[in-house]
Design brief:
Elements lengths: L7 H23 L9 E4 L6 E4 H8 L3 H4 L43 H6 L5 H4 L5 H16 L1 H4 L15
Antiparallel strand pairs: 1-2
Length: 167
């Protein structure tokens, strides 16, 4: 047996290890309860893309409306319908009295969804549109700075851009 072919044992061992690794990998992949990676999105922007994991935010926010406002389905709408690239400066919300000068008017006469059903009412009727960047920064920074300031805030409590932007 001392005359066995050199390298044959090594080749057999390599084949066995390869087959074992393939079996373990296939078993994990084909398992029905295999965990899937949550969808991750790169949100491109001029400050460097943001890596956004939707499932993580859903767990924290609790409901879609926390980020997607009152319309979770967004009715084919997209962010730019209320958040154009550029927007005039001003107050983000106009009070009811700016259109309703009747002293008996109260804001609870219609809920938000009811207002949107009235003909010719749109978001910009009450809300001054802001740019997408401003909308994301306001929404994201408010939550991140409140829930994890050690990770997202620098000295003085200012947002750390590099905590989100991958540049």
């Amino acid at each position: 047996m001392a005359n066995a072919q050199p390298g044959r044992g090594r080749a057999v061992m390599l084949a066995v290890v390869t087959l074992a690794l393939l079996a373990v990998g296939a078993g994990g992949y084909l398992r029905e309860d295999a965990a899937e990676d949550p969808p991750r999105f790169y949100l491109p922007n001029s400050a460097g893309a943001d890596l956004f994991t939707h499932a993580d935010h859903m767990d924290i926010a609790g409901d879609c409306e926390a980020c997607h406002h009152e319309s979770a389905t967004m009715d084919p709408r997209n962010c730019r319908s209320c958040h154009p690239a550029t927007a005039p400066e001003g107050e983000p919300f106009r009070g009811c009295a700016s259109c309703h000068d009747d002293p008996d008017y109260t804001a609870d006469l219609l809920d938000h969804a009811g207002l949107l059903e009235i003909e010719d009412h749109e978001c910009s009727g009450c809300h001054d549109p802001v740019g997408v960047s401003d909308a994301y920064h306001a929404l994201c920074n408010d939550c991140h700075l409140q829930n994890d300031p050690d990770r997202f805030a620098g000295p003085g409590g200012q947002p750390l851009c590099a905590a989100c932007h991958l540049r």
